[in-house]
Write a structure and sequence with these properties.
Blueprint: H1 4-22, H2 29-46, H3 50-55, E1 57-64, E2 69-71, H4 73-80, E3 91-93, E4 97-100, E5 106-115, E6 120-132, E7 135-145
């Protein structure tokens, strides 16, 4: 038979497990969907999967750069094709903050952009639109250089 001290430890561990389970992601489902879409979008770059990248672009996508604006999925894809040319991704990104309108159809995702060595280059901001059930696509995207 276990000692009273052992029983107390077992009960505390079981309760701790309940707290961890109870700490599940309580963000709204659309926020989790957009974050997952952003991570998959970024993974397309890391995995050098240009077709997957293009699948996240809305037909109406507008990507804003410092010196040019690219309008439409085709123009954005043509601009980004060179980023997929080599065996290594020239940069990466990840969502840090995601917000979704109460309507659940438009979202903002923003976070850091890193160079190939992992140093922070800047910050991206993407606007996502729910274009069909479960299909979030980027409609606007821009970035800014990182200032320390």
């Amino acid at each position: 038979m276990p000692s009273p001290c052992t029983r107390v430890i077992v009960i505390l561990l079981l309760l701790a497990g309940c707290v961890v389970v109870g700490a599940a992601d309580d963000r709204p489902e659309p926020v989790r969907q957009v974050e997952a879409a952003e991570r998959a979008f970024a993974r397309s770059m890391a995995e050098r999967d240009f077709e997957a990248f293009k699948a996240f672009l809305s037909e109406e996508a507008v990507f804003l750069e410092a010196t040019a604006t690219f309008r439409g999925k085709q123009a954005v894809a043509e601009r980004w094709a060179s980023f997929f040319a080599g065996p290594e991704a020239p940069f990466s990104w990840e969502p840090e903050k995601v917000e979704v309108l109460e309507s659940g159809t438009l979202a903002l995702s923003t976070g850091p952009v890193y160079d190939a060595a992992g140093s922070r280059l800047g910050t991206f901001t993407s606007i996502w639109r729910l274009e069909e059930p479960g299909a979030w696509r980027v409609v606007f995207d821009t970035g800014a250089k990182f200032c320390e």
